[in-house]
Specification:
Blueprint (H helix, E strand, L loop, with lengths): L1 H4 L5 H27 L2 H9 L2 H9 L4 H20 L6 H22 L3 H10 L7 H30 L1 H6 L4 H39 L6 H26 L3 H25 L6 H11 L10 H5 L13 E3 L5 E5 L5 E5 L5 E4 L7 E4 L3 E6 L2 E6 L2 E5 L4 E5 L3 E6 L4 E6 L3 E6 L2 E6 H5 L5 E6 L1 E6 L2 E6 L5 E4 L5 E3 L11 E4 L2 E6 L2 E8 L2 E8 L21 E6 L3 E6 L4 E5 L6 E4 L5 E5 L4 E6 L5 E6 L13 E3 L4 E5 L4 E6 L5 E7 L6 E5 L2
Antiparallel strand pairs: 1-9, 2-3, 2-34, 3-4, 5-6, 6-7, 7-10, 8-9, 11-12, 12-13, 13-14, 15-16, 16-17, 17-18, 19-20, 20-21, 21-22, 23-24, 24-25, 26-27, 27-28, 28-29, 30-31, 31-32, 32-33
Helix pairs in contact: 2-8, 2-10, 2-11, 3-6, 3-10, 4-5, 4-6, 5-6, 5-10, 7-10, 8-10, 10-11, 10-12, 11-12, 12-13
Amino acid sequence: MNVLFAPFEVAFVQRALWGGLLVSCVCALAGTWVVVRGMAFLGDAMAHGMLPGVAVASLLGGNLLVGAACSAAAMALGVTALQRNSRFTADTGIGLMFVGMLAAGVIIVSRSQSFAVDVTGFLFGDVLAIRDRDLGYLVAALAIAMVITVLGHRAFVALAFEPRKAHTLGLRPRWAQAALLGLLTVAIVASFHVAGTLLVFGLLIAPPAAATYWADRIPVIMVLAAAFGAVATVLGLLVSWHAGTAAGATIVAVAVGLFFASAFAAWARTRIRPPRANTVALLGVLIAAVPLVGCGSDTADSEAPVETPHGYVAGAEETDAPQTRLVVADTAGAMRVVDLIDGAVTEVDPVSGITSLRGDDRFAYAETGAATRIVDGGTWTVDHGDHVHYYRAAIREVGALERGGVRAVHSDPVVTGVVTESGTTLLDRAELDEGRITERDVLADALAVPYAEHLVVIAKDSGRVEVRTREGAVVSSPPESCRAPSGSAVTRRGFVVGCADGAVLVRGSEGRFESAKIGYPQQVSAPERASEFAHRPGSTTLVARAGERGIWVLDVRTRSWRLIETGPTVAVNTAGEGSVLLALTRDGVLHSYDSATGDQTGQVPLLGPIPNNGPLPVIQIDTDRAYINDGGARVVHEIDYRDNLRRARTFDLDIAPAHMVETGR
């Protein structure tokens, strides 16, 4: 039975289940009238008509449901107006609005390169991304739909079967038609998150159409349609979980499958079973769908105990997508955490003076003189290569580490290495996750980074490289040395550390390690060497400032350097292979370059002139957006680097964000 219940132990699947059940009820109320009145074309047209509103809302950084509602309402008003024109049939008006709205949506989507990925969610939905507030919207939508259904039932029936008699009875058929369009709009907008603009039509008509094979009274059809929708939601989520398919599309596919199963059962009962066997046949259809869940699983799987997800921490909530946040601080010691999903800003207790801020995907390490304050950003990602877990928890202050001069922080599930000017302090990561600072070891005059369930240790004086167990036993001593180690990064293809004459790459697999020296392609002076790497987590392309000359690009795959002579920069970063390289110059202009060729692809004035004294801005980057702190204007800019450096959002703050790190990437 574990195969049936394990998926629903995850918080985001539970929300998806409740969301699907609520949507099933809303669609049952509206979809019954769509099926009974033969309004399928209108329903399909209105579903597609949501696209322009959703696209505009995304482009402006607004609420997608609000955009969908506005677009669907405009579609409903347009259809109503055109249907009153006696020059052409109702289908002609619907078709014109359908094509016009769809064309507008495609134009808006094609206008922005960033929609290349986002359009998938628009068209096919993302039921696993439903949040608690979305469930609140769905409850409100269901309440509105029930009120419209109850109050308009008599008029809807008359409109469906005796339109002329509706006039005689004083039921105002035009108002009834408008109310029915309103009910349809509510259902389509409510279902948007589950199935998107293309597939929502399936949820709207498949369950009610299936229900018509088992009942002929409107209220009973609605109840059965809600039941079929609920079954489709449960089975769809289960199949999606075990087969790794898109959840929204799987739910719709199961709903359509239930329709064909009902059609077959209805055909069979008229030829094989007596007419009174409706109830038994219906139960047979619902029960027959259950084995779909077990496809691909065996007895051993069903008897296996439920395992705690990798990286889980008590009190955390697992989500289906990264829950990124920014931790920002001013030089006086004030700190804020900005949620990049909903824009909420959380205040953290201030301290006296912050000189630098580092991060390790979950925690922010703020240097305050001789100590380092640790703040839990409350979001993190656990990457296992073939699958990824995303978590979200409360923001909290952990405490202070009595060491300063933090230069880098690297973590794995067991150890956190805090690299300082004097050496490396190893912290117990499990204790840190629980909100406690526990030192495992202190390695003086050495850079130590957790990698591949071991520690890579580089002596600062001799440059000797060693791979040790977490208990300190040496398991490998690569022949390459690294004089004056500075700058480090963990990538999917190994650990990289910057050296005076280039970089050293250490790769490990199943306890075996190999290393390689990646020398500079030319003579490099001390100010021009790569002393601090920037990259998107997991990326195999690293960038670093090259003094006054420009930017170093280190491709870990090909083990080669490229110098892009841009002139002096104050901040650089890249999203990885095949993506752009971003650079901020002293005049506050953001530039983008092709990381493979070095050609400039765009630029945009972003900040004012950056002073020579004080902390420099940073560029934090993830798979979709880049973030740049502007201390002078007290804002953080969100840049869509795939869309000509478009400024997607601006987060206004009550402090000057001189320092910034991103968590949850």
